[in-house]
From TrEMBL:
Residues 544-562 have a biased composition (Basic and acidic residues). This is Putative 5'-nucleotidase C-terminal domain-containing protein. One of its GO terms (cellular component) is cytosol. Residues 1-19 form the signal peptide. Residues 527-542 have a biased composition (Polar residues).
Length: 662
């Protein structure tokens, strides 16, 4: 594929390039590698359990959303894309030494949610170039990659064309020059290095606000296509379904956007019914969780987190036919998968004709984790030999791009961390408490003393805000949508007292002014009192019989899937590669919030109603006002991306030192 020649050419050119950029005179340790982004922070926790290896192994990413620089103030996920490039190359080399196969797969949503992807026009103009430095064997497209035709066009130019036949999109078409065209290839036949025959497909969910220029086909239509009939008529050892869709759903759904089925899972069901003799593997995405689902003894699904916080690992044994397999017959000196899948409920009449042994692992996205599994490093520091020349090159590209986009500019020092769902609504550590303060301080016009009611969509906040240096990049991560503030002037206050509640009712949400049940604890942060008692589905990212010292663990993902429950201290079947302290992530909040400024409940007669432009239609409908009455409240350059930046400049610039939190 095109990556190889590019990668090696870049790597060979590195000595001269590095000398030219001024690093040649800097002292370098002969043994220890520095962290890759200068403003990131390394975790102090190392995995202690090696990965299982099978005949066929997968490295899986999904929903990266432009987070290629890593999580700079979160030690669990401090690696950048260059570190990941180094990791993947080491793992490919290891697979070759073991004489087994390794496929690297991504299942979509590579934009929206980080300044690297979002601060260019179109989104992805810079980040796509960085993303494609990784040698992916298969990829597919996500819903966020499809909302804007220019963004989709950029992905088509930068990613689809680059990866060519490796980019699969079996059920998505986009309108090009007036004609519906597949965004990628509908399927791919693969014969691996060691002779395993795989037919792969890529499916995207239907349950999103599909743009007019996009068509997402359903499963019933796909199975009628001539190309599909041809693809499924070939001899094969494994069917591989990669997709941007929830692996834990059933085929039939009652979707938020009126979709009635999940194409990825419906296609899985079709294959298990019509091809039960062939093992099948699903790699999914979209729901932003770590998850593994057993379907039957020869089929399962894996999903691998979000925002470059997780690398999914999956090892399969007993999938390769003994007559055609050219790889290792028996693996030594590495663990091999011993688990088998049993469906947790009977959902169909078919029965598998083969049993696959398998296991999964969810890796934290940090250098220690990568170095441990790639080269056997055990600390306390990451050896310099972990970093490949090309990985270092990618890291420097990311750093240069961040500077170019001004993402590294510090706006202030966040004095504490603020959470979307790990602290009760209206508590000091809840992020919407901060949002209200910031809106009140920054959303004003020339008449700052005027009475105003500011409305805000809480789902415009995409991520927690962590204690420590607060940069332009952090602001773009927390509040990435560029909505302009609009307003209706001099509206009778009596008419708008229930406006926020009426808006929330449209979303079947509780009102902002209603009394919320949860009380603020002493820390206002939902850490589980029992570190092994968590939400039955998914908590944030605690170590294993891999490290049971509570005091040394960071809050983080505590995953429950069909193979094990990481909240169970005694479980040997936990999928989290590094265990963490469970943190509650299910505190609710209203869909819309409101901020009252200069309003005296007994005296105020009229107010200005201020809102992001995305809310305009609903506000006008409820108040029965005309579009012509709406005006810009501030200059259009001041958007929902800007209010936290302005607040940080004024409120968080008093600290001479700035420390990060947990």
């Amino acid at each position: 594929m095109p990556w190889s020649s590019f990668a090696w050419a870049a790597a060979l050119a590195l000595p001269a390039a590095l000398a030219q950029d001024g690093d040649a005179d800097q002292p370098k340790s002969p043994e220890i590698a520095p962290r890759m982004q200068p403003d990131s922070h390394n975790t102090t926790h190392w995995p202690t359990s090696p990965l299982p290896w099978g005949e066929l192994n997968f490295i899986h990413t999904t929903d990266t959303h432009g987070w290629l620089e890593g999580h700079l103030n979160e030690v669990n996920y401090g690696a950048d894309w260059g570190d990941f490039v180094s990791f993947v190359q080491h793992m490919r080399d290891k697979a070759d030494r073991l004489k087994v196969d390794l496929l690297v797969v991504d299942t979509g949503d590579i934009v929206t949610g980080n300044g690297l992807s979002d601060l260019t026009t179109p989104q992805g103009y810079e980040s796509n170039r960085l993303f494609r430095n990784l040698e992916y064997d298969l990829l597919t497209i996500g819903n966020n990659d499809l909302y804007n035709s220019k963004v989709t066009g950029q992905i088509r130019e930068d990613i689809v064309t680059y990866y060519d036949t490796n980019y699969l999109s079996s059920n998505v078409k986009v309108k090009i020059n007036g004609k519906d065209e597949p965004i990628g290839k509908p399927y791919k036949h693969i014969t691996t290095k060691h002779g395993l025959r795989i037919t792969a497909f890529g499916f995207t969910l239907q349950d999103f606000k599909v743009p007019k220029n996009v068509t997402v086909q359903g499963a019933d239509d796909i199975v009628k296509e001539d190309w599909f009939k041809n693809a499924t008529s070939q001899p094969v050892d494994l069917y591989l379904l990669i997709g941007h869709a929830d692996i834990g759903q059933g085929c039939k759904i009652n979707g938020k956007y009126k979709a009635d089925h999940n194409p990825l899972i419906c296609m899985k069901d079709w294959f298990r019914k019509n091809k039960p003799e062939v093992p099948l593997q699903v790699l999914g995405g979209h729901s932003h969780t770590r998850n593994f689902s057993c379907y039957d003894s020869a089929s399962s699904g894996l999903e691998s987190g979000r925002y470059a916080d997780t690398v999914g690992w999956l090892a399969l044994r007993d999938v390769a036919p003994s007559k055609t397999w050219k790889g290792s017959k028996t693996l030594t000196n590495v663990p091999t998968p011993t688990k088998t899948c049993k469906p947790h409920q009977s959902t169909s009449s078919y029965s598998a004709q083969k049993t696959v042994h398998l296991d999964r692992r969810y890796l934290d996205f940090n250098r220690q984790t990568f170095a441990y599994h790639a080269i056997g490093a055990k600390g306390p520091d990451v050896p310099a030999k972990f970093d490949t020349p090309f990985g270092r090159h990618v890291t420097k590209e990311i750093q240069a791009t961040r500077r170019h986009l001004n993402l590294t500019a510090e706006l202030g020092c966040a004095p504490q961390s603020y959470y979307i769902a790990s602290s009760p609504y209206k508590c000091p550590n809840n992020i919407y408490t901060l949002v209200k303060s910031a809106l009140k301080t920054t959303v004003n016009n020339k008449n700052a003393s005027s009475a105003r009611l500011i409305l805000f969509n809480t789902y415009g906040i995409r991520y927690d805000l962590y204690q420590g240096p607060f940069t332009v990049g952090d602001a773009e991560t927390v509040s990435p949508y560029p909505d302009v503030f609009r307003y209706l002037a001099n509206i009778p206050y009596e008419k708008v007292k229930t406006l926020e509640c009426d808006l929330n009712k449209l979303k079947k949400s509780s009102c902002d002014d209603e009394k919320w049940k949860e009380k603020c604890n002493s820390h206002s942060l939902g850490l589980s009192t029992n570190p092994y008692a968590g939400d039955p589905q998914q908590n944030v990212l605690t170590n294993d019989a891999r490290d049971l010292d509570n005091d040394k663990r960071n809050p983080g993902h505590v995953t429950k899937d069909d193979f094990g429950d990481c909240s169970d201290r005694k479980s040997a079947d936990c999928g989290d590669d590094t265990r963490h302290i469970a943190r509650v992530e299910n505190y609710k909040h209203p869909y819309y919030l409101q901020v009252k400024v200069n309003i005296d409940e007994g005296m105020t007669k009229t107010v200005d109603v201020v809102f992001p432009d995305a809310m305009e239609t609903d506000v006008l409908d409820i108040l029965k006002r005309k579009k012509e009455e709406v005006k810009d409240y501030k200059d259009k350059s001041f958007t929902t991306r800007e209010f936290l930046k302005e607040y940080a400049k004024s409120a968080w610039n008093k600290n001479s030192t700035c420390k990060i939190g947990q």
